[in-house]
Design brief:
single chain; mainly alpha
Length: 157
């Protein structure tokens, strides 16, 4: 396992050297900024929606009215703790699926970057082929959807 960590760290630094040498920063930084903005905005709205869902669930089941009628501090504490645990579980689910959403949205850029990297490594200049790029985009989306499905299965099991 330590060997794999060392290999990963070495690959990370080699990738940075490759990016710097071939001036590919714009293909790394721009998607990174877009990822950050999408994450922040969607995190805000998902957290807000999660709160509203928990409140709706409590009102729909009558739990809120029952808790108000009981007027117990201990029950209120457990109710708040349960709501917090549900909110955290929903946020964990969000975190596990957001990366796949971004991979799907960013697949055209990643397909182009992959072709550009391959052309640099092999030293050949490939002409822009929209049909191949379309196939790469569809392949990337399919892989991301498959992995998102497996992640969901693992999250619920």
């Amino acid at each position: 396992m330590l060997k794999d960590i060392i290999i990963a760290i070495e690959a990370y630094f080699k990738a940075h050297q490759f990016i710097r040498k071939h001036n590919l920063w714009k293909w790394i930084v721009v998607p990174g900024i877009i990822y950050m903005l999408l994450f922040c905005f969607s995190m805000y709205y998902f957290a807000h929606t999660s709160n509203n869902f928990i409140l709706w669930l409590n009102l729909k089941t009558g739990l809120k009215a029952w808790l108000d009628k009981m007027n117990s501090g201990v029950l209120a504490f457990f109710f708040t703790l349960g709501s917090l645990i549900l909110w955290l579980a929903m946020m964990l689910f969000y975190f596990s699926l957001f990366k796949f959403f971004f991979l799907i949205v960013g697949s055209p850029v990643f397909a182009y970057l992959s072709e550009k990297t391959e052309a640099i490594i092999e030293g050949k200049d490939y002409p822009m082929n929209l049909s191949q790029m379309g196939k790469d985009i569809v392949r990337g989306i399919r892989i991301a959807l498959r992995n998102a499905l497996w992640q969901t299965v693992y999250a619920f099991s």
